């Protein structure tokens, strides 16, 4: 840095020129949106009329296509799509059981069974809870 010049003091005119140039660059990439619509994938909060209002049929007009989009957005993924869209959806996509469960079949159904000891301990536990609740 043998030939380095000393810094000149910052000039207000130059600062303003740099600011104008930055604003022009920003405005080139910006777009002004003037049309807005409701996102069909978000839950819609409808405000009701006043309780004592006499005009009840004032808002009776409904758009059937909009209602179809709203109801379609709230469906679960298995009813919306024919196949899973992500790897996470692949787990549990087919949720129907492979075989029909038969409760009378002893090979696949193991109901809870109590022996004499478990019946005795269950009664003792209930008695203990009742005495704790009273005291």
TrEMBL record:
This is Protein FAM183A. It comes from Megalops atlanticus (Tarpon). It comes from the Eukaryota. The lineage of its organism: Eukaryota, Metazoa, Chordata, Craniata, Vertebrata. It holds the Pfam family FAM183. The keyword rRNA-binding does not apply. One of its GO terms (cellular component) is cytoskeleton. Belongs to the CFAP144 family. Keywords: Cell projection, Cytoplasm, Cytoskeleton. It is found in: Cell projection, Cilium; Cytoplasm, Cytoskeleton.
């Amino acid at each position: 840095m043998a030939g380095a010049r000393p810094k000149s003091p910052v000039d207000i005119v130059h600062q303003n020129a740099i600011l104008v140039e930055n604003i022009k660059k920003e405005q080139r990439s910006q777009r002004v949106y003037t049309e807005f619509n409701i996102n069909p994938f978000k839950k819609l909060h409808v405000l009701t009329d006043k309780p004592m209002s006499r005009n009840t049929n004032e808002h009776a007009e409904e758009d059937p296509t909009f209602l179809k989009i709203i109801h379609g957005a709230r469906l679960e993924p298995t009813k919306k799509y024919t196949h899973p869209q992500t790897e996470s959806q692949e787990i549990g996509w087919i949720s129907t059981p492979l075989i029909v469960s038969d409760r009378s079949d002893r090979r696949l159904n193991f109901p809870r069974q109590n022996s004499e000891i478990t019946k005795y301990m269950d009664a003792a536990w209930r008695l203990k809870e009742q005495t704790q609740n009273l005291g």
